[in-house]
Design brief:
Chain lengths: ~350, ~280
């Protein structure tokens, strides 16, 4: 079901957590709300869920105005960062909870509940744990049970608050992939909150970048990476080199092949992989010195110092595939020639 | 036990524990048991099957159970208010809760007797409005026991309520549960073991209570006489053996009841995955 937010504002005392948020989430999407901590992303998610009231604006789910409904009336599924499983119930009872609390007329029979719960536990691949208590499970297992519990009531939308935030790195990686696959299977409109840009890019079909209670940009992961709308998004998503527009930098950027005409007063953002490195044949054409390099799996990250730097200049980072770097036969201290393919210019 | 433990000091600490437990608890209690051996079985049966004594047992234990049950309900509500809400004067409220711990029980007894006696402020009101007499009846005993045992319940439930994750409630309501369902199915089961502990403490305190009860109870034989009072009466008559027989019986019954409550608690915890 689609979600439509119009003009949502929320203050906590003097602090404006959300400022006139307008957002449309089309049906079936898996959307990431991405931003640094304190940007209002969790508050926005809790407002969609009905766990928090908005000061202004409307929340529409599938065209229906849900603003004044409580969380229990909205028909949403919510997954909490710290799982919030019912400690005193078995895994089975946790998942069955949403079905057992339905009004008597709508409540399914025990057999149907059992069938449904086991089907959901199969879906999250944890049916063998149905007799355990939450305290006896690992973090990843708890989060999957929490997801099964939220899905049991067949929610129209699924909301996840930093679903992988409390897990360790390897489990997180597995669960991300798993969540993406599960979403492709179920097609329930989902929104998840994260502060990890890598996670947002990897899992979501749409990313919404928030900062200071405002939406900075909304789009597909590639859209946001390749065409950042502003300096904040460019800095927040992925690695980037930032060059202020002064005479020294200007000259240096031009020597690296970047056209800087008509860009006066702006700041250049250059992705590391947009910097191409060649061995300098003579020291005249060299524009940088190789200071250090690190292996990042298939890529090499190269730390460079601009040759006209007067000591205090920040290093420039470039990235290239391992193989290509080996062919260049570079070592630390070598002079190199740079070519910058493209830059994003922001004020 | 002979294995090296990470925590040093097992032997000396256990030694001290047993020493003090022996000095303070076991020696006095075993003296009581040995003292009662001076009585023959027939004498013992004769003493404790005395009608006045039997009815005092009934009064003591039923009043304590009822008082502990009521104190559990009100203690729970009080703990709830203290944990869940912030309001003006909450710190004073906190201090007030503990007052019955600190107050000499005789003072509490005299105050309660004064206001609940037929000519007293509340006693007058209650008998005029509802025709209920509190003082000099088992009801008076119950009220005195509630007064002194509420803090036990509040202080055992409070930390558990504080620790309770409120996201569990949010999870419940996101799954469509009503406020009432969230209370009965999520909050209460998590608090229940602590509430049982509070109940057990309140009950134990009630059975042994003397000072606050005797003034309001009126101590009418067969009606409002509690067991501790009968023990004192026997002692005043230099009937040490009679007093020991009653005391031993009380000890055994109390022990059995507390054991029962503990088993119940064990069962509840086990059933809710807290063990």
């Amino acid at each position: 079901m689609s979600i439509l937010l119009t003009d949502i504002s929320k203050n906590f005392g003097q602090f404006a957590a959300l400022n006139q948020i307008n957002l449309e989430v089309p049906e079936g999407e898996l959307v990431a709300l991405l931003g640094p901590s304190g940007c209002g992303k969790t508050t926005l998610l809790r407002i969609i869920a009905g766990l928090e009231h908005t000061d202004k604006g409307r929340v529409l789910i599938n065209g229906e105005d849900k603003t004044d409904q409580t969380v229990s009336q909205r028909g949403i599924g919510f997954v909490f960062q710290h799982y919030a499983l019912f400690r005193h119930m078995t895994v089975f009872e946790n998942v069955a909870f949403g079905l057992r609390v339905k009004p008597r007329k709508e409540r399914p029979s025990n057999e149907i509940i059992a069938k449904k719960v086991h089907a959901l536990l199969d879906l999250v691949q944890l049916d063998w744990l149905h007799n355990r208590y939450p305290d006896q499970l690992s973090g990843g297992q708890r989060q999957r049970i929490a997801l099964a519990r939220a899905l049991a009531v067949e929610p129209s939308v699924l909301l996840l608050d930093e679903p992988f935030g409390a897990l360790d790195a390897s489990v997180r990686k597995d669960l991300r992939q798993w969540l993406r696959n599960l979403h492709q299977e179920l097609h329930v409109t989902s929104i998840f909150v994260t502060h990890d840009q890598e996670e947002a890019m990897e899992v979501a079909s749409q990313v919404v970048v928030l900062n200071h209670g405002r939406i900075e940009q909304q789009g597909s992961p590639s859209d946001i990476y390749d065409h950042p709308a502003n300096a904040f998004v460019s800095k927040f998503i992925g690695q980037t080199n930032i060059f202020d527009f002064d005479d020294q930098n200007n000259e240096w950027l031009q020597s690296a092949g970047l056209l800087t005409a008509n860009q006066a007063g702006k700041i250049a953002h250059v992705r590391p992989h947009d910097i191409i490195i060649e061995k300098a044949d003579t020291s005249n054409t060299a524009s940088a010195i190789l200071k250090d390099f690190q292996h990042l799996g298939a890529l090499i990250r190269i730390e460079l110092i601009k040759n006209n730097a007067n000591g205090s200049n920040a290093p420039v980072f470039a990235e290239m595939p391992n193989e290509q770097f080996k062919q260049l036969k570079l070592s630390i201290g070598d002079k190199v020639k740079l070519k910058i393919r493209q830059a994003h210019w922001f004020h | 036990m002979s294995q090296k433990s990470v925590m040093p000091g097992f032997r000396p600490t256990l030694g001290y524990t047993l020493l003090y437990l022996g000095l303070v608890v076991l020696i006095p209690l075993s003296t009581l048991v040995f003292e009662s051996f001076k009585l023959s079985w027939d004498d013992y049966i004769h003493i404790i099957t005395n009608k006045r004594i039997l009815s005092s047992f009934q009064v003591s234990f039923s009043a304590s159970l009822i008082a502990a049950a009521i104190a559990s309900v009100f203690g729970f509500i009080t703990a709830w208010v203290l944990v869940r809400y912030s309001f003006f004067g909450k710190n004073i409220f906190h201090a007030l809760i503990d007052l019955p711990f600190a107050l000499p029980t005789a003072v509490a007894g005299i105050v309660l007797a004064t206001i609940f006696q037929p000519s007293g402020f509340l006693g007058h009101l209650l008998s005029n409005l509802f025709g209920i007499q509190v003082a000099f009846k088992p009801l008076g005993i119950v009220i005195a026991l509630i007064f002194i045992s509420i803090p036990f319940v509040v202080r055992t439930v409070e930390p558990v309520l504080l620790e309770f994750e409120t996201t569990m409630e949010e999870a419940g309501s996101s799954l469509g549960a009503t406020r009432w369902q969230i209370f009965t199915k999520i909050i209460f089961p998590n608090i229940f073991p602590a509430l049982l502990t509070g109940f057990a403490l309140a009950f134990a305190r009630g059975v042994g209570e003397y000072g606050s009860v005797i003034f309001i109870a009126g101590n009418i034989p067969y009606v409002s006489e509690i067991v501790p009072l009968l023990i004192v009466i026997k002692l005043e008559q230099y009937d040490i053996e009679g007093a020991t027989a009653i005391a031993l019986t009380m000890l055994v019954i109390s022990f059995l009841l507390l054991l029962l409550i503990n088993l119940l608690q064990f069962w509840v915890r086990k059933r809710s995955g807290q063990l």
